[in-house]
Amino acid sequence: MKLAIVADTAGRALALRRLFEPLHQQAWQALGLEEARRQLSAEPPDLLLQQLDSETDVERARQLQAVLPCPVLLFTTLAEPRADLVFAALGLGARDVVDLPGLGVRPDIDAERLLRRIRNIGLLSSGPAQHAKAGAAPAPAPRPPSDPWPALVAVGASAGGPATLSTLLGSLPASFRGSVVLVQHLDDRFSAGMADWLARECALPVRLARPGDVPQPGAVLLAGGNSHLRLERSGALAYADEPAGLPYRPSVDVFLHSVAQHWRGVAVGVLLTGMGSDGAQGLKAMRERGFTTIAQDRASSAVWGMPKAAVEINAATQVLPLSQIAARLVALCA
Questions:
Q1: Are residues 251 and 183 in contact, defined by beta-carbon separation less than 8 angstroms?
Q2: Does the active-site annotation cover 278?
Q3: Of 158, 171, 191, 251, which residue is the catalytic one?
Q4: Coil vs helix vs strand at 72
Q5: Is the separation of the CB atoms in 260 and 279 below 8 Å?
Q6: Is 158 a catalytic residue?
Q7: CA–CA dist 287, 205 (Å, integer)
Q8: CA–CA distance, 69 with 48 (Å, rounded to integer)
């Protein structure tokens, strides 16, 4: 892949280049907004690596978004990355963020952290779709009137997801009766920060999902770590390393398939903005079990990849703009 770099100093750009060469080629580097604009127009790269350490960097990302011909991978060099900056920039449509503390100063930066994310973006951009495989499972038993399982809202998102999730959760009332589980493609180092950030953005409590947690009415659980989140037959959540080889951990498909297999109450699957096709097959499995499934529409998606894949295989019972999804969830979970 041909990679371009937007950084604040030539030293950081050089240090970053040394992490990805010779596996990838540098197309160019830019140290300012106008230079980056000119270079993007003259020589579009396959991937733009963009520094994210300050409010100025977020504003630069905002202005470049209008002219971007390629995906963006953010990198932060701070010892303690600022969650507000990360999620603001991810909300603009950046594919991912990688934590490289001390880049340009420390000689022991882990190159594999960067290379793995470049590889994942390459797979999602041009490689064949990879889906989680689910074994055959019987449809959930009909829900009797006394069934104590609450209504479950299973949500998947990727590029553009943080800002979209903030809007969605912020539109749900404190009296919302559904239990919400979120699977967002994100570096595990930022998962706890994202849960805290979302909790400040909405009226519902938000925290990371722990093994053994059972979804509860009026609460939000966010998948964290570098493992796949699954729903067990008992209704409790668990993490698993398999299936291996999927571009992202946690996988939306893995979680939605497990909901289709094991949830015995009302369930709603929601697939939001994101690149690639993760979640489309899982959403289809939920629909085939009789659950309501929602895909975000093109106009309101930062990246209409995952929802588009779901629409193309008829996995969504409804395709809605972001502004209408919360109200629909309230009605379905009443």
A1: yes
A2: yes
A3: 158
A4: strand
A5: no
A6: yes
A7: 28
A8: 9
pTM above 0.85?
no
Cα(26)–Cα(179) distance, integer angstroms: 46
Let me know if residue 145 belongs to a domain: no
The amino acid at 210 = R
Q: Which among 46, 253, 278, 297 is annotated as catalytic?
A: 278
- CA nearest to 257, candidates 148, 182, 154, 188: 154
Three-state DSSP class for residue 270: strand
Verify whether residue 96 is a known catalytic residue: no
Q: Does 174 lie in the same domain as 297?
A: yes
User: What letter represents residue 298's amino acid?
Assistant: R
Tell me how many degrees the CA angle 126-228-318 measures, rounded to the nearest 5: 70
Give how many domains the chain has, as a whole number: 2
Query: Do residue 156 and residue 295 come from a single domain?
Result: yes
Helical (H) or strand (E) element with 230: strand 228-231
User: Is position 137 within any domain?
Assistant: no
Q: Is residue 101 part of a domain?
A: yes
Provide the pLDDT for residue 176. Answer: 97
Choosing from 185, 187, 251, 257, which is the catalytic residue? 185
pLDDT digits (tens, 9 = 90+) for 297-319: 999 998 899 999 999 999 999 99
- 57 inside domain: yes
Residue 25 sits in which domain range?
2-126
Residues 96 and 200 occupy one common structural domain: no
The reply to whether 292 and 159 lie within a common domain is yes
Helix (H) or strand (E) holding 331: helix 322-332
Identify the band that residue 127 occupies on the pLDDT scale cut at 50, 70 and 90: very low
For 137-161, how does the pLDDT look when each residue is reduced to its tens digit (9 = 90+)? 444 444 433 357 899 999 999 988 8
Distance of CA 71 to the CA centre of its chain: 14
* 282, 255 Cβ separation under 8 angstroms: yes
We report the CATH number of the domain holding residue 240 as 3.40.50.180
DSSP state, 122? H
Q: Which residue's structure tokens are 């085939």? A: 288
